[in-house]
Amino acid sequence: MARHTCVFFHAHPDDEALLTAGTMARLAAQGHRVVLVLATAGERGLAPGTRHGATLGVLRRAEARASARALGCARLVFLGYTDSGHGTLPGDATGSGVPFATADVEEAAGRLAALLTEERASLLTVYDPAGGYGHPDHLQVHRVGYRAARLAATPAVLEATVDRDLLLRGLRAASWVYRFPPQFDRESFRQAYAPRAQITHRVPVKAQWRAKRASMAAHASQAAGGDSERTLAALRRLPAPLFRQLLGTEWYVQRGLPDGTALHDPLATLTGAH
Length: 274
Description:
7-stranded mixed beta sheet, PIG-L family deacetylase, zinc
């Protein structure tokens, strides 16, 4: 089997745990080279008892390294931008001092393209055009990632996403047994992620559930904070059989494939394996 280098591009530490951890572990176990690239160190993430900025950035870098080890990554790279939060701030003393959401796309894409070229990457993952749930840094990952792939002539680009149809059904079902906080807007998810009809890859990752759970556990600072329970904390508490079932598939969109494409291998369009 041909060995490929697969680069997973994310905005913040812990994004990989939620969206692509199973795929990363699966590819690493198959002998492929997996590289995790983070645009920022997540300096503006919510974390109880931890000062924002440089201190939180140092902690989240360490958590990202632990997650990368759990997933079998060969390399972890930080692009050096700062976390924009849900609105941009002036530069600070961490990283390059440039919030990723307002970074020059050509400059950022050049950084990423240099890495793709160095690694001779066969595959790059980005986010869907909505940036998942619309975080400014996630939207920038989409823009920068596609531009970098063009500059580096990377053969395949997959958009990491979630099956929106399944997500909305799950939220409706959960509302019968779980009281969402008042600020939670379930209707906002009607425009988040990708509708099922657009999804081209449904990657089975039940066999990688331990690695995925370990990746989530590595980001301990993000399990709490804010006014409501965090997603990582809720998912990590699931019993193992339910964790495998609910998180046993990861979804991607590859533009340019025919409607109705249903692939299970993230490298299928490179290897011909459908």
